[in-house]
Protein 1
Amino acid sequence: MNLSFETFLPLAPVILLSLTAVLVMLAVSIKRNHCVSYWITIAGQLAALVSIFALDGFAVDRVATPVTDLILIDGHAYFYGALVIFASLVCTVFLRNFIESYGNNKEEVYMLLLIAAVGGLVLVSSSHMAGFFIGLELLSVPVYGMVAYTHERSRSLEAGVKYLILSAAASAFLLFGMALVYAQTGTMLFADLADKLAEHGGYLAGFGIAMIVIAMCFKLSLAPFHLWTPDVYQGAPAPVGALLATASKLAIIAILIRFLGHITSDLTAVLQPVLAVIAIVSIAVGNFLALTQTNLKRMLAYSSIAHMGYLLIALIAGNSVDVVSANVYLLTYVVTSLAAFGAISALSHGGNALDAEEVNHYRGLFYRSPALAVALTLVMLSLAGIPLTAGFIGKFYIFMTGVTTSSWILLAALIIGSGLGLYYYLRVMVALYDRTGNSQADNVPAARASVAIVILLVVLVLWLGVYPQPALEFINTLH
Amino acid sequence: MEIAFYIASAIAIYATLRVVTNTNPVHALLSLIVSLLAVAAIFFMLGAPFAGALEIIVYAGAIMVLFVFVVMMLNIGPAVAMQERAWLTPKTWVVPAILAAVLLAEMLYLLRDGTWNQAGHTLVDAKQVGISLFGPYLLVVELASLLLLAALVAAYHLGKRDDQNG
């Protein structure tokens, strides 16, 4: 086996991010300075993002390049990778003003964020069970620390412990599944999986694949594996919630798409009805439980369960994964969710006992911070899937997948779910313009950098909604 | 001639059940050590002596001893001496001791017999593990180091109190 500079060149984003994490660590060990750590993190992530384009990551004639057996870099891997880095970059900005008022050490959170981003990148490009597992752990372990980062708040610590234990259970499922698949097929490479499964197929491997899929559903917080989600979203600091809802979900969806593409069709046929039930239950549970929430973070947690249910439709309708629909939906979901959590982050401070998470905090926000209120309104419209916003385009693609594959039951779930969703999103919007005002939130200043980023994201939401052509064409050329 | 494998497996399962059902942490930990030793024996018999040795050194050795120490140190107070005496009753150690003795007998029997990997197909020794770790799986080793860094930083931050500086 020959390893040279060229072998690792396609991994430049991963290497740059790892390097940045080490740089932050060295900077902290020389002298603690929040500002320096912050700018190193921003610069490193920008460099990683630029490196994807510098490597012609999205060139049309690009062939998939393997880096050892573990990693296979193709256009999709770079697309999801770029989204992961984008999400973590935005979270970094949100984190800054949040962590500024936090009394304890501030700099470590950037290191954890960078390592989580490395994990996301490895996960989306892995083509081997070992890469799959190490990527997932690399994505999860720093996030445990980040969820519990403000451990002076008991809720944050509780959320961290909950996420740690339940994620560990999911990882155990994943490992056991991989062991069963390996025991039957003797291969850990995704590329060999289909052939070997067809050759030695049996209950053991099928059971193993089911366990792997269950672990993924767990991480995606699809019902009935969703019980941890609202508590963890509520307890996590708002910017970390943004990371959990976007980068983490996105990377796991990406590997799930890749994994499902490599198993035999008779196994897919067995999995399909199971996943369809999971999708419908997720849509129902997410939307019904979100109806009664008065806490914005919990509401977003339940709505993310429903959104993952919608997304699952693109993965299971028909005989194969509709990657284009899934990608469009992921893009719109990531941008919208980042903006939603960004608005919460802008009003939250690490030094306070609670984030600005109750709907009451937002009552009359329009008269205190009009720009943020308008942005949040548009975000809620996008989450609800109203035309002219990104959310509509995403939902439209899922809808089209459902129609072309004649999956009428799934479509019915999508339509009913969206209708229910409208109610609780509208309730937040009404609160924003409620003149009665609210004393407890009047004096919370919105952080300017976060508001600016939220507005940028909302512009992106509108642009994707009004003129989606360039983005859609770009996604169509991915291969 | 796979009887040794089944005995070790039975011990592993029984000891693990005792870990889960025991309400006294020290009793549970003793059973966990036995369970890990039994799993190590299984690794040896499957033809993975390196994994078996690591299991004993890292889990049964380092991590578990650390656990036992921490649990014992948590009980600082006047009741400690009494508790120590209570822990030394045969009820505490007799079952783990019997299970460990069975494992020992198994090991002696296998040493005399000379068939190491009677339940496995091939022998994977330390050299092969090293070659694959620093060959095709090089990236995993590097990423694992990042994973440890993340765990270390998170543990450091969570363990640190507000009133300390640095």
Note: Chain B touches chain A at residues 135-140, 143-144, 146-147, 149-151, 153-158, 160, 162 (CB under 8 Å).
Protein 2
Amino acid sequence: MTDAGVLRMTEGARSNLPPLQLHVPEPKFRPGDAVDYSHLVIPAAGAQARPDEGCAASETHPLCLDLVRVLGDDHRAVGPWDPKLDPETLRRMLRLMALTRAFDDRMYRGQRQGKTSFYMKCTGEEATSIAPAMALASDDMVFPSYRQQGILIARGYPMVDMINQIYSNKADKLKGRQLPIMYSAREASFFSISGNLATQYPQAVGWAMASAIKGDTRIAAAWLGEGSTAEGDFHSAMTFAAVYNAPVVFNVVNNQWAISSFSGFAGAERTTFAARAIGYGIAGLRVDGNDPLAVYAATRWAANRARANGGPTLIEHFTYRAEGHSTSDDPGQYRSQAERTEWPLGDPINRLARHLEALGEWTPEAHAAMDLELAEQVKAAAKAAEGNGVLGHGLHHPFRTLFEDVFEELPWHLKEQSEQAIRERRIKWPEWKED
Amino acid sequence: MSETFSMKKLNMIEAINDALDVMMARDANIVVMGEDVGYFGGVFRATAGLQKKYGRTRVFDTPISECGIIGVAVGMGAYGLRPVPEIQFADYIYPGLDQLVSEAARLRYRSAGEYTAPITVRSPFGGGIFGGQTHSQSPEALFTHVAGLKTVIPSTPHDAKGLLIAAIEDNDPVIFFEPKRIYNGPFNGYYDKPVEPWSRHKDGAVPEGYYRIPLGKARVVREGEAMTVLAYGTMVHVAEAVLADKGVDAEIIDLRTLVPLDIETIEASVKKTGKCLIVHEATRTGGFGAELSALVQEHCFYHLEAPIERVTGFDTPYPHSLEWAYFPGPVRIGEAVDRLLKA
């Protein structure tokens, strides 16, 4: 008899009840499975109401269970959320997304070639960084997670500096201290990426509160993945933002997968992630994350609201992580490859390109030429960065930097340890001289 | 200092309140926040009157979320403010640990100085008030273990004010643990006798206005030859009373800052006396006394005439009814002193 059976027999008074059952979520599709997305409710583009930016938070709550969409199947922009961007701006948006993808492709290959230890692509999710970066003011402070390289690209941060960081080389502004892609770029109002999940959320609220305390006009925006909404920090941030009406835009990039755990392990079987806003009484929007115009419009709505003292907004970007979590991941081990090809919301770059074509403002030939040009641009930046070294092949930062910046000033115990490290170096390489 | 400053008698709570007041008046970027710190002025009254004086956007209550309090403080620091959050009891600090350990402590390093966390986390700590396991802990060793954090513990009103001002002005994150048993008077471990109030104690005289006590500098409470006693917080007073009762000519050092540690003062004293007693209230295994013992051994081994003694709390949760059996009081300290004297 099993232990559970023994236990049940001792509970005679309740033995007429069926045994309790633990529910462990399981994704609909596993490797090799055919994929059927008919369970997803995809409303028609343009069908969602757009409340006034100054509305009561509760007026947005139906949108937390809906899906704001602008680009329809006919590639036209429709409905009240159409941001009505001019063709030049649309082409810029397209170019930035394509540049992000070209950058990802090159850096992924760089990792495979041994130039660095690690990389993370954002393929399929480009709209969730590029469109918000374009909708925010350039000096609004962003607190990204690890898949928002598009923000730096949209803000014109030098690509060579991004690659220097990825290669941890001698020109890396972070002195080779951080895992590749954990950028920090104060000049781009881009906060240092942690790598610990969701910690940036309360920090964004604190920055926004400080901006309000000082009577500033700048707001904060934060990003995380749907899996990280399970962290306590997410809920602390929601509470503080609601309590102090902080001028902050929360982005939840729901790309369906947290490494190998599907969104059900963050609660997606019960409700949407945007619906978290309902419980906190703040504004919430659920957006087609592969529709760059919808993402732009939602961000602009939330940013205008925050800047007018209307408080925080939580935006769920419903999208799909088209590639692995990182270069250390093989999604073929846990999910069906058909998920990507069957994804009903398409690809953000294709959708915007088709939209521009429908407007008569773009052609496949122009697109192909752009892709070639962007690949060359990234290649040139990568070559320039490689001149500063790649991971593990010399040209590192000066040795003493290992001990700098732990504190503003070097205390005695770190001085001692620094001397030891230099001694070790001299024992191993007697000819070595400190840079 | 008494030559240049006019002095006033303050208990430790009043001294901390005074430090906050002085600094908030000097620097508009300082904000004070925490559970019950606003209108009410804190459960220990450390922030009393500050909201009325500086307004609700500089002194405010927070949700009951230590993760949120410290995370928000990190973000405010990134903006350019200088937040002084209060964690109501050190025992409550653990939900905020990730924000301290992974964020505040590492921000300067990971961003190569682009962002810093100039925050001072104040928190009452230590037992002796019948607080049970959730209002009595001394978790300082968890923080001294973390690269990038400074840990400060005052033992007098005078030091509390000067150290808190220095902590607030410091550009690195500081954990400022306030020994709540000595908020009102220098409790000396004789729990069955009344505590002398700070108003009758020499270190209850606090200079008015701005002054700072540099972080990383210990205080020689009493010079002596028989042995060196290393202590901080409440245990400074307990050790002082026990050694006075026993008539031992000990050199008592109040560390004041655990990280960065004043190793020079420690080393000079132990080399002079040849014996070392370490006293803290926190649990023994992996406590800060272990680090002190290792450092004394590394720096003073050939001058030592006896094994280093550690007197600490026991490795149990802090009990309620058996509080005084747990507390490293006069009997436990006295026994260690006797062993050192006989050695």
Note: The mean pLDDT of chain B is 97.
